[in-house]
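Incident log, support desk, overnight shift.

02:14 A customer reports that sequence design results differ from what the structure should imply. Their input is reproduced verbatim below. On-call engineer (initials T.W.) acknowledged and began investigating.
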């Protein structure tokens, strides 16, 4: 059993390493895209603040990963190992192909698939049907209100095509109503339900926050000298990039923390699910090392292919993304940091008009987001069935 636990710890750290390898783009894409820092300077800064992040926040996400998705009775060392294997392979393949994906969602899919392969669908902790129904009603209400408001604004401005504005308004309404019911504690949303919801909500929150912040900056500095503006925001972007990296590390580094702690509990080395300090440190170090080595193909996609960034836009994107990550981390939701920063980059790009964003690239990125959980779940499910047949687990 000790060897299985050791293998699980090593694989969890490898997952955090490839997580940093892919998600390096999240932390440094904007400062590289605006040329505020060189790539080497950017990864050094991101690696440091990715290490700091988990020490400043709670370990709520680690608990969600370790015991909020799969019934702890079925969270065996074998389930964890094969789930992580699927996640590591998908993140590595995506990094090699330059595709920014969610390592968190890859891990979620891997654990779900292997757990179902081990014990069936009842191994997953599903939300209560009443909670889902109430959530759907709130979502419909939020989408309706958002669509109505944005459509009225577009009509007032005499826009010719109102349907696209209604769609954007509906997404914005959905993105805002969910945080509202979480903050006000109207509805308890956690576990797999929160993860699935925030696939849509986190990029939209990033888009809304960075778009609004970008518009405020444009209005405030409309008559300012462009050279002076670039100089000021180049300095401010160092702060915003550090802020985002802290949020990134605090959210994503906890994936390995949750897995390692679950392995220690499953192996009988811990009696309760409490994340040890050494687990926090080694998990943070692993993701920082991955960030330091960098996933340069992903960086290129994020930094240059979605939209052309200026220093003020980089500041707005990082600040908007950092706010989103801080919010969801506080509530223990393991979201995609890729989703948050991608939405933020789209938001600041949209301040210069619809055509400023390369939506073809965006569609490719979104497609990778959608397939990550089902793909890793299917792979880990099939792998576990084969493993169970061979070793009679």
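02:41 Re-run completed on a clean worker. Output:
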């Amino acid at each position: 059993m000790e060897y299985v636990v050791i293998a699980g710890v090593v694989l969890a750290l490898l997952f955090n390493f490839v997580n940093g390898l892919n998600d390096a783009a999240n932390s440094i894409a904007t400062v590289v895209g605006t040329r505020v820092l060189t790539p080497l300077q950017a990864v050094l800064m991101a690696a440091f603040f990715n290490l700091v992040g988990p020490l400043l926040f709670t370990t709520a996400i680690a608990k969600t990963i370790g015991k909020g998705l799969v019934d702890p009775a079925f969270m065996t060392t074998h389930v964890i190992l094969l789930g992580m294997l699927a996640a590591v392979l998908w993140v590595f393949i995506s990094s090699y192909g330059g595709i920014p994906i969610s390592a968190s969602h890859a891990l979620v899919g891997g654990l779900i698939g292997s757990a179902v392969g081990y014990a069936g669908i009842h191994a997953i902790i599903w939300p209560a049907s009443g909670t889902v129904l109430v959530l759907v009603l709130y979502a419909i209400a939020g989408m309706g209100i958002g669509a109505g408001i944005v459509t009225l604004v577009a009509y007032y401005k005499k826009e010719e095509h109102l349907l696209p504005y209604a769609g954007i308004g509906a997404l914005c309404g959905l993105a805002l109503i969910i945080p509202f019911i979480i903050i006000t504690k109207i509805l308890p949303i956690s576990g797999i339900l929160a993860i699935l919801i925030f696939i849509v909500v986190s990029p939209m929150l990033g888009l809304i926050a960075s778009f609004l912040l970008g518009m405020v900056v444009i209005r405030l500095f409309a008559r300012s000298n462009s050279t002076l503006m670039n100089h000021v925001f180049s300095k401010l972007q160092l702060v915003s990039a550090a802020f985002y990296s802290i949020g990134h590390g605090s959210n994503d580094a906890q994936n390995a923390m949750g897995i390692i702690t679950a392995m220690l509990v499953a192996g009988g080395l811990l009696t309760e699910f409490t994340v040890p300090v050494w687990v926090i440190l080694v998990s943070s170090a692993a993701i920082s090392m991955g960030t330091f080595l960098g996933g340069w193909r992903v960086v290129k996609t994020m930094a240059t292919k979605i939209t052309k960034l200026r220093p003020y836009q980089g500041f707005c994107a990082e600040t908007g993304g950092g706010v989103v990550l801080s919010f969801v981390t506080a509530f223990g939701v393991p979201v995609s940091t890729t989703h948050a920063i991608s939405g933020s980059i789209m938001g600041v790009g949209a301040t210069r008009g619809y055509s400023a964003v390369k939506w073809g690239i965006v569609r490719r990125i979104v497609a990778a987001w959608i397939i990550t959980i089902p793909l890793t779940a299917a792979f880990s499910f099939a792998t576990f069935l084969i493993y169970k047949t061979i070793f009679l687990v």
